[in-house]
C-alpha cells in the first residue's frame, strides 16, 4: 500500500501515527499475554484489542504486526527444524526492513482496513480525497478489498496481517462481510481488530476473537507517552486525571488548552449558587466562535466531567484524590456536602448529557447551549 493524504481516520491530530510509535507504555500485561500465546505456538487467528480510546490499542496492533512480519518464515518441520525461540518482547529494530515498510505503508504482508474517502462513486471519492473528507463508517466496499488481499499468496511463505481500525466503525454490511472472513481465516493470517466499545460489535465477531484488554495509563506512563509524542507538560498528574488515563484525550486537551478551560469552569462553579454571569457569558461566547467546534466539544466534555466529580464527591464524602486545578476540592465539597446532594447532581449530570446531545442533534446555537447548561447547574446548586 502507498501513503494516502495527510488526513487519516486512525491518527490523532498533532500526534505521530501509531505505526510510527515505537514504544508502548502501561500495557505490559497485554503484551505478555500475546507473547505467551506466541511462545506456546497457540497464536489465535483473530485478536480483539479493546479498551478506552487513546490508551495505545492501535500502537499495540502495529507493534504486533511489526513483530510477526519480522519473524522468519516457519520451517516445514522435520528433524533439522530449529528449536522454537522464546520471545520476551515485541520490540523490533526501527531500522529493520519491515519497520521501514510499515512506516511507508508499503508492506505487502499487511492490510489496513479503515474508513475510506466519502462518496458512493469513484469520481465523488476522488473529490473527497482532494478535500480531505472521510466517510463516517467503514463500508462493505472496503471489506471487499480485504477479501482480495486474503486470497493472494503470502509473500515468501510469510505471514499476512490485517489491522481493522476501528471495528466499531463498520456498518452492518461491512461487519457481516468481515465475519465471513473470521469464520474461514486463511492460513498464516492474523487479524487485529481495534475496538473502543466491544459490546457494540456483533457477538459472533467477538466470539471468534481472543481479547487483549488495555487499561487507562497511570500518571507516570502518561508522562512517558506524552514525551514520546512530543507533548511533555508539567501538569501530567492533573492531565492523567482529566483524561481518564487516555493519551489521545490528553493530547486533545493540551492542543485545545483544556486545563485552562477547566480552571475557568471551576472558578465559575465556585461562585454558585450566585452565578458569575459575565464570566459564564464570556465562556459561552468563546465556545460559539467561528471555527471553534473542537473547543466547543471539549467544553461540553469538561462540563460533564466536572458535574460527575461533584456527584461523586457527595456520594463518597470526599473529593477525588487528585485535584485537577487549585481550588477544585473546596468547590466540590461546597456543592456536594452529603449523599443527598449527590443524588441531585447525578440526575443533573444525566440530564445535561441528554440535553447537550439533543442540542447538537438540532444544531442549537453553541452559546445558547452552554448557557442553558450553566443555568441548569445553577438551579441544582440553589436547591
Structural commentary:
By secondary structure, the protein is an alpha/beta fold. It is 50% helix and 7% strand. It has 16 helices and 5 strands. It has a 5-stranded parallel β-sheet with strand order 2-3-4-1-5, with helices on both faces. Helix 5 packs parallel to helix 6, helix 13 packs across helix 14 and helix 13 packs antiparallel against helix 15.
Instruction: Write down the domain tally.
Output: 2
Q: N-to-C terminal Cα separation, in Å?
A: 60 Å
Give me the CATH architecture of the largest domain, please: 3-Layer(aba) Sandwich
* Radius of gyration based on Cα positions: 24 Å
CATH class of the largest domain: Alpha Beta
Percent of residues in helical segments?
40-55%
> pLDDT under 50 segments (min length 5)?
1-5
Alpha-beta content class: alpha/beta
How many helices? The count is 16
The fraction of residues in strands falls at: 5-15%
Mean pLDDT, to the nearest integer, reads 89
The CATH topology of the largest domain: Rossmann fold
Q: Give the overall shape.
A: globular
Count all strands and give the number: 5
Profile the largest sheet.
Answer: 5 strands, parallel
List the strand order in the largest sheet. Answer: 2-3-4-1-5
